[in-house]
């Protein structure tokens, strides 16, 4: 390969810039030119390609967000849209692509390679940690630490005013952020999409806490919880149990931003390097991940379709300690 491209897609995740940096530096080390595609598949279709040199990625490893931007692109979902993208890649003489993103990104890449033959390698960039084939995704660790810092501050107010706080965290389809952060902050309960929510059981837990002279409580709620999210669960609880003044905090997009943690910077760097070397070895339609502290490759098909399961030991731990 003489020239490759890299882009970031889907929701931004802390560490994406570190991954871009690793892709560029590794490619240049192997005497391969690199282009960045601005705004993901949308930029691929419109031809928004920029050359990336050694200094192009200086001083970005510590930055959140993504210097290459991200965007949704409905046109890429069409055969004609992907045909336009292929023309642009060929126009710029791109021999392979590194895609940094999540399941939607890899789904598009898989279809595109089958139609047009240009190889893609993926790096898992998503705070949700829901991709099969890697122990952690880029951005997950930072998002966890952001939640923990925020909830620690909320707990100060909860304790000062004897309040019950429902804190909603990201996790529309997966409860990885909610479960680990819930354990880390000592939450009284963690509500996630993978398990059913029973308001009566939650109230009994709060009553037990009051019986032990507990004057405040924190409930962590994943946004995709089947109870309907933090506001709805809080409403249902308040109808039946009003011993606490109840408040709701939705952390929202602050979980996506901020400087990546040391762990995410190292993980992103490892995976960016691995992705480039995989392209040079002739791999395609695979995601680079880390399993048991070693780089491993998983087909896009498996990474997307084989949903990661919640760790049952962590579920039991959260239940026991609460």
How does this structure look, described?
By secondary structure, this protein is α/β, with parallel strands linked by helices. Helices cover 43% and strands 18% of the residues. The chain contains 11 helices and 11 strands. It has helices at 16-29, 40-46, 79-91, 103-116, 140-161, 176-185, 199-211, 230-240, 262-280, 300-305, 312-321; strands at residues 3-8, 33-37, 49-51, 96-101, 120-124, 163-169, 189-191, 217-222, 245-250, 286-291, 294-299. The chain is elongated.
Oligomerization: single chain
Instruction: Return the CATH class of the largest domain.
Output: Alpha Beta
Rounded average pLDDT: 94
Number of domains: 2
Characterize the biggest β-sheet: 7 strands, mixed
| Helical fraction | 40-55%
- How far the N terminus sits from the C terminus, by CA atoms, comes to 54 Å
Let me know the number of strands. Answer: 11
**Proportion of beta-strand residues:** 15-25%
Rg (CA only) = 22 Å
Describe the strand arrangement of the main beta sheet, using strand numbers.
3-2-1-4-5-10-11
SS-based structural class? Answer: alpha/beta
What is the string of helix and strand elements? EHEHEHEHEHEHEHEHEHEEHH
List the helices and strands and how they pair.
Elements: E1 3-8, H1 16-29, E2 33-37, H2 40-46, E3 49-51, H3 79-91, E4 96-101, H4 103-116, E5 120-124, H5 140-161, E6 163-169, H6 176-185, E7 189-191, H7 199-211, E8 217-222, H8 230-240, E9 245-250, H9 262-280, E10 286-291, E11 294-299, H10 300-305, H11 312-321
Parallel strand pairs: 1-2, 1-4, 4-5, 5-10, 6-8, 6-9, 7-8
Antiparallel strand pairs: 2-3, 10-11
Helix pairs in contact: 1-9, 2-3, 5-6, 6-11, 7-8
